[in-house]
Every structure is written in structure tokens, then in C-alpha cells.
Amino acid sequence: MLYLTSDNFPVFVPFGVIGFYRYLWFLIRVAAAYTYRPIPLPENPTYIASEDVTIIVPTIDAGEEFKEAANSWLVGKPKEILIITEEKMLGPLQDLANQVDPERIRVLTVPFANKRLQMSHGIKNCTTDIIVFADDDAIWPPTLLPYVLACFEDQKVGGVGTSQRVQPCGDRMTVWEVLAAFRLTIRNIEIACSTHIDGGIPCLSGRTAAYRTVILKDPEFLHGFTHDYWLGKYQLNSGDDKFLTRWMVSHGWSTYVQCCKEAELLSTMKPNWRFLKQVLRWTRNTWRSDMRSLFMERYIWTAHPYVAYTMVDKLFNPFTLLVGPCLVSYLIYKSTIPIDSGGYHLPWWNIILSYMVWLTATRTAKLLPHLWQRPQDIIYVPAFIAFGYYFAVMKLYALCTLHETGWGTRAGIGDASAATAAMDNNEKAAAAGNNNPVYQQRVDPYNNSQNPFSPFRDQAPPSPYQDNPSQTPIYAARAGGNRRGEEEGMEMQVGYAR
């Protein structure tokens, strides 16, 4: 390729600059991740799992893998595990809970399968200082809870995440699971880097993340969380972890990620082509959330400027990645033209071979942390390269289809608006003393003027308390509080407006 530059050197200058820029930042990320250090365990911990931790697991189809996951959670001795499911799954999940630990696992239900409503229901039934959300297949090491709780010793920390690895569904990983494992390796480096540089993170992954309960019990949070709309009319069900992360940033709370073996969970991924549908859903959530963070809420620019940079970089990443194939195609075309007519002297096969060698070398370098642990996965590097270009095209497709908010990989996930309307009607009926609520669709669920002070005012419909302001709960939390409420300085108020 260097010999090729003698034909028309200026053609390569902009692409060389792009390549230098991208790999310079890659080296910076690696260096920052290498110097990152997790928070160690305190000698006298403020928080004890058996007193202060409730694990909330929203699910609709937990199977036998739930037993392994639940047993791994119980090793950390949480006070309680709340399984939140839809009503028709109560029996099967109660049987699973009884087989594991009926004393510490409760199964609660909501009328509709809706993850955010399930999480909200779990929050309302939590009585501990710390809530840990977990997927029903997340397998924890025995030390995960103590290492997560160690971060909350800093009273400004509102949310804590963990690093992750892929747990194969079968005896060996499929190519789809290896691709997922590659992505998690790169993600672990990125989150360690951003946490070390400016303390921020693009997303506290919903596979396992811990939060202060006082933050999540705030009615403003609960209302915004369950009434989250894209462009004012497309209600969101997935993307809950993105919402939670943005809420931490917009309300002045710090976050931290424990990237270490002691807090590294195992999670299953789709072992077949359905993994692509998962990635498509995650990509849409990333587009929507990052654009909100950067251009609508804008807290991220001052709170975590490095994370803001990474978000901007991701906006342009699919375009810069697709520049390579476009350039190679152009060079191949030029190589078919006679030199006397302005063509290039190198044959087309030389250009393709040089490009493939470059791709293989650079992509393998990015995957070295994973290949050090699993060298046998080196045979999947070509698949990872192909997936990278497919992913770039998928990101552009996702950008054009942000109005599609369905789950994509799970049956039984119904209309989010209908589920939310049913919840609102239930709350109104309960407030009015009506024991026979009627489930019906709200005609106009969106009104910006009802919540003028919320950072999510452009997405949230009217508060369920607007018809009866005297019953509006006051429950505000701000960074700087303490675990035991007012007696230790927590800036918290609980009560009802009069």
C-alpha cells in the first residue's frame, strides 16, 4: 500500500489522518483502562448486604438458568430478592422461587408484561437502602455484592455498574456468542477508561447495576421512568438502563464501575442469529439516549466531557468505518484503468490483500485482552471484521427507524402505552378507594406543560397526581445524602403536600 501512494499521494492523506486519530484514541483508552483501579473493600463497611440490599429481577420467561443465577445472588446474602413478572407467570416463577429459597425470594406481579412497569413495581416494594437490578440469567461471583457496596461509601455515588463476560448456553460458544464476547471485552476496556478519566459512563448496563433506593423512589423519577416517550409519541419500554444512567447525570449523582474479577458477572447471549436483533434494539436505544444526552439535556458536557466525546465519536463512527471499503473500491476501480490513462499500477488483488492484512492486524490488536484468555477464538477474527461492517450499516438503519420501540427478541411484550395507561388507572382508582379498576387506554397521555421542571419534561406525560394535588408525595433526593436518612444527614423529605 505504501508503494501505491507513489501514484497519487494526496488521496491517502485524509484517510491516514482518520486512521491515526482513531488508533491514537484507542491507545489512550487502553492506557487509561490499564491504570484504572477498582475501589477496594472498606475495613468497616457502611452497607451490609443482609440489611441494605434488595435484588429486583424483572422477567417474563425465566427458566432453569434462573436457578443458577439466583443461587449465585444468594451467596452474597442480600436481604431479599423480588421477582417481578406478569400475572400469568406467577405460578411457574413461584415454583422456581420455592425451589431456590422461598424465605428470601418473593414473586410479585403486574397486569402487563412491561419491563419498566415491573421495575417500578419492584422499587415501590423495596425497603432497603440499595436496589440492585439484575437480569434473570446474570451469574455473579461470590464477591460481587461487597465490591459493589464498597462504591457507595462515597455518598455522592448514586449508581454502580460491573464488568461482564459471556456465559455460553451450550458446551461451547457459537460464533454469535464469540462476537458478543468480543464486544464485551471492548466494552470493559471502554468503561474502565471513561471511569478512570472523568468518572462517567455511557450506560450502567441493566444486566446488573446498583442504585440508592432514595433516588428511585422519587415520584418524579418513577413517573418519568414509566412515561418515557421518543418524539412525544413513541413510548419506550427497553432502554431502561440508559434512562437510569442519564437520571444520575442530570441529578448530580456520581457513578462508578467496578471492573475487576471480583465483580465480573457472567451473562448469556443469544446463541443464534437472534443476537443481531438484540444488537439492533441496543443500537436504537443508544442513538435515542445519546442524542438526548448531547443535545436535549446537555448535562453530560460539563459532568463528564470525556463520555460526551465518546458519544459524539459514536455518532460519526459508522460513517468513518464505511470510508475504508469505499476507498478500496475506488482504488480497485483505478487499478483496472491503464496507467497511461490515469490508472494505478498495482493489481486489484494486491490492494485487497493489503487491506485484509491491515484489517486483520488492527482488529486482532483490539481483541488481544480477550484472545489472551481464549486464544482459540482467534479463528473468529474474520467474522468479527465482517460483523463490524454489518454493524456500521445496522447503525444507519437503526438511525432511520428510531420510531420502532418494540423489544424484538421476546414474545409477550405488548403495547407499552396500554400497560402504562392501565397502571395509571389503577393508581387513580386506588387513590379514589375503588377496588375494581378499569383498564383502558388513555386518550391523550402527553402534555409537556404538566412537568416544567423535570429534565425529562419533553418526554413525560401528565403526572398521575395532577387530579388530586393534595395527595402528591414529596420525596426528593440530592447528591450528598447518607444511608440512614436525616439522622445522618440525608437531604430527604418524605410526606404529602397539604
Automatic annotation (TrEMBL):
The keyword S-adenosyl-L-methionine does not apply. Its main location: membrane. GO terms for molecular function: glycosyltransferase activity. It is found in: Membrane. Residues 438-498 are annotated as: Disordered. GO terms for cellular component: membrane. The chain crosses the membrane at residues 12-32, 315-333, 377-398. Keywords: Glycoprotein, Glycosyltransferase, Membrane, Transferase, Transmembrane, Transmembrane helix. InterPro entries: Glycosyltrans_GT2/GT47, Nucleotide-diphossugar_trans. PANTHER family: EXOSTOSIN-LIKE 2, SYNTHASE CPS1, PUTATIVE (AFU_ORTHOLOGUE AFUA_7G02500)-RELATED. This is Glycosyltransferase family 2 protein. It comes from Leucocoprinus birnbaumii.
